[in-house]
């Protein structure tokens, strides 16, 4: 951490990193809430007088630095700036919703039934991929970081986001969920499971939280040369939504080689079957978390799915994982 001296101030730059400056900042921000405002904000001054806030206080040279590092304007003290920021957020959210609406969801449901996965090409733009991948080094965004080798999970790292989730991640979670509920409920019915999923993600999260599952599960994964992810399932408690989404944030053949997304299917009284999903930057794959029904000669039976990532041969690979249930 950079320590200020008598001649300089510590400001936060557009990359979110601290630096020394001979000129004082013009705006203050709060690291955990990701909000910036005026230095004379009465609410901030009262919090400081009570002995709080100071640990999470940051300063910016200007609004460009504040917004570039992921902070939004205060709605109470900068209402005009907040209105402009919110309009931009609504436009971005509308873009995600419109992109999702453009996919052929009946075909996606058919792919899920036949293969256990479905590809959503170019769900995110290159700019969105870079923006999300760039969050990884901002520790304040995450509740937990896992080094896979320490636990026998493989090699590489992943970090679970903290609440509040980044806007794009939250919007993806909210918008994808209702599109997948019909398949989730149909699968449970075919597998003779009593659980049915409500129509909105807020209702499902309330169910998770009542059961003590209140920790957010969306995550960022980062791989370097020779890193890999062992075959696994992402189950974190009693309440498990049976589908999840992974979005590749790096470009194969440019940013990395190897590192294929792999799914395996364990079939009753048969050998397991593996499949590699062909992903490009911005593509999303929807896939089964645990079990899915498969129609056989004597009706449907359950097959168990696992997923992982093969060894990276060169470069760096980043992935966003969207899991719909929360964890204990």
What does this protein look like?
There is one protein chain. The protein is α+β, with helices and mostly antiparallel strands and 328 residues long. It is 27% helix and 31% strand. It is built from seven helices and 21 strands. The protein has helices spanning 42-49, 63-68, 79-101, 105-115, 126-133, 167-190, 201-210, and strands at residues 9-12, 18-21, 27-30, 35-38, 57-60, 72-73, 117-120, 142-147, 154-155, 157-161, 219-223, 228-232, 243-248, 256-258, 261-266, 273-277, 284-288, 291-296, 299-309, 312-315, 317-322. Strands 7-17-13-21-11-10-8 form a seven-stranded antiparallel sheet. Strands 9, 12, 15, 16, 18 and 19 form a six-stranded antiparallel sheet that branches. Strands 5-3-4-6 form a four-stranded mixed sheet. α3 (79-101) runs parallel beside α6. The protein is globular and about 75 Å long. Mean pLDDT is 89; it is low at 1-6.
- E-strand count: 21
Strand order of the largest sheet: 7-17-13-21-11-10-8
Mean pLDDT: 89
SSE ordering: EEEEHEHEHHEHEEEHHEEEEEEEEEEE
- Uncertain runs with pLDDT below 50, 5 residues or more? 1-6
- What is the C-alpha radius of gyration, as a whole number of Å? 22 Å
Shape: globular
The helix-and-strand class reads alpha+beta
How much beta, percentage-wise? Answer: 25-35%
For the largest beta-sheet, the strand count, sense and barrel status come to:
7 strands, antiparallel
What is the percent of helical residues? 25-40%
Head-to-tail CA distance between termini: 32 Å
Supply the number of helical segments. 7
